[in-house]
Design brief:
The protein has 136 residues and is an all-beta fold. It is built from no helices and nine strands.
Amino acid sequence: MMRTLAAAISVLLLPILTSCTTSSGGITTENKSLTAVSAERTRLAQTWHLKADCSQLSRPNVRTVSPPAHGKLEIVPEDVLANSKKFPKCVGVKTAGTVVYYTSAAGYVGPDKATFRESYGDGVVRDVTFSINVVK
């Protein structure tokens, strides 16, 4: 096993109402819930991939698995600030990452759901499903 471990972190930036993590067939699945305001772009998560020395290993690959029925997901390559629990010395390090945004259809209020997949090129694969409560 390589001595340098990679941090593959997905961080929710908004308050989580619930969160659950399971694993099946080598894919970790996470279920999260949050509230978003109708028609407002809401940041769901950000990912990055660092080495133990805080240098960048790679930019994570993120793709939509199941799009929301009442809105859209945007997957955007952006610089992010790491806040790794695995590598505390890397907290605040600016690195190339990927950010996932959700925007509901204008005027839509009610439940929505979306799933995206994160992969890191090192065998780490995670499906993240958000149950979204869209409010006015």
